[in-house]
Write a structure and sequence with these properties.
The chain is of the alpha+beta class and 286 residues long. 23% of the residues lie in helices and 20% in strands. It has a four-stranded antiparallel sheet with strand order 1-6-7-5, covered by helices on one side. A four-stranded antiparallel sheet has the order 2-3-4-8, covered by helices on one side. The longest helix has 20 residues. It is globular. The protein binds a DNA duplex (16 and 16 nucleotides) through α5.
Length: 286
DNA sequence: AAGAGGCCCTGATAGC
DNA sequence: TGCTATCAGGGCCTCT
């Protein structure tokens, strides 16, 4: 699930729990992530103090008391867990699954306040990478579109981007060069909120449609952040306030269920658009 | 050069 | 119960 809202929630947790903590040790159980977790990462980060944690799109950037940054990307299945000294998961600071899984804990960071940060990732599509201070001008950041929550994601920008293109709305919202941070789940939910069907192409958009896409993108993502992001599987929350947005999905995964829009007689349909599942209501999304 | 498709990898689930 | 097939939230690369 790691899309923008989940990374934003994780960022806030990490900031709260790890800011000004010193890394004492990094244990690597499996370095074979999407890119190898190299020895130089461990060497560079040893004894460094975390000064800040920021988010760009679906990426986390950890800042230290020296010029290099640590880029973290969770891929499709990565999760981060903070454990306290009794090895108990600390309440407000985890992402996506309630308990530390037994398998696939690949990287463990040890901190001087006796907490541990564990990186778990069954599919190993995620990765860690050291960045230099000019990182914003290099890949992957140099080719990302604006953050959907930022002012740069506005009517003129969208209008200009889609001019002379022929692409469907689902692909558009998931194109990180267009807008960065929206993935499959939220693309489906945003288009439902706009009453626009995912296969509609951008050349048929009215001004009102464009304004709506911008407004609903911000609204859906902000709401997801407010609810602590989404978790599809095995989610149990002992505080009742983290990661429950999946209960609020209108269309994602709701195949053959009745459309939740008041008065709409439609049933949610699933179609495949460029190899990804798309869910929508054929009655109210036109 | 925009856009489509394959692929990296493991686990959960469905169907037989 | 145990096999096989299918599908999964991302993004990079290659091909047309």
């Amino acid at each position: 699930m790691p899309e923008l809202p989940e990374i934003e929630v994780l960022k806030r947790s990490l900031k709260k729990k790890l800011k000004f903590q010193r890394i004492l040790k990094i244990k690597v159980y499996n370095k074979n992530l999407r890119y190898k977790f190299s020895n130089s990462i461990s060497k560079n980060l040893n004894k460094r103090i975390i000064h800040d944690v920021t988010r760009i799109s679906k990426y986390l950037v950890i800042h230290f008391n020296f010029s290099k940054k640590l880029l973290v990307h969770l891929g499709m299945s990565g999760t981060i867990h903070i454990l306290d000294k009794k090895n108990k998961r600390s309440n407000a600071s985890f992402y996506s699954s309630a308990f530390l899984p037994k398998k696939h804990n690949h990287i463990v960071f040890f901190f001087n306040n006796s907490t541990k940060m564990v990186y778990n990732d069954p599919r190993r599509f995620g990765y860690f990478k050291l960045l230099n201070s000019n990182y914003l001008f290099k890949k992957p950041f140099s080719c990302l579109g604006p953050d959907p929550l930022s002012y740069n994601f506005n009517y003129n920008y969208v209008k200009n981007f889609i001019s002379s293109r022929k692409i469907n709305l689902k692909k558009l919202l998931m194109d990180q060069k267009f807008v960065s941070g929206i993935g499959n789940i939220y693309a489906n939910e945003i288009l439902y909120s706009c009453k626009l069907k995912p296969i509609k192409t951008v050349d048929f958009l009215s001004k009102k449609n464009i304004l709506d896409i911008i407004y609903q993108s911000k609204k859906v993502l902000n709401k997801a952040i407010k609810y602590g992001g989404s978790s599809i599987k095995n989610f149990v929350d002992d505080e009742g306030n983290t990661g429950i947005f999946q209960q609020k999905f209108n269309v994602y995964g709701k195949i053959n269920e009745k459309c939740p829009r008041y008065g709409c007689p439609g049933y949610i349909k699933k179609i495949i658009i460029s190899n990804r599942s798309s869910f929508y209501c054929p009655k109210c999304q036109v």
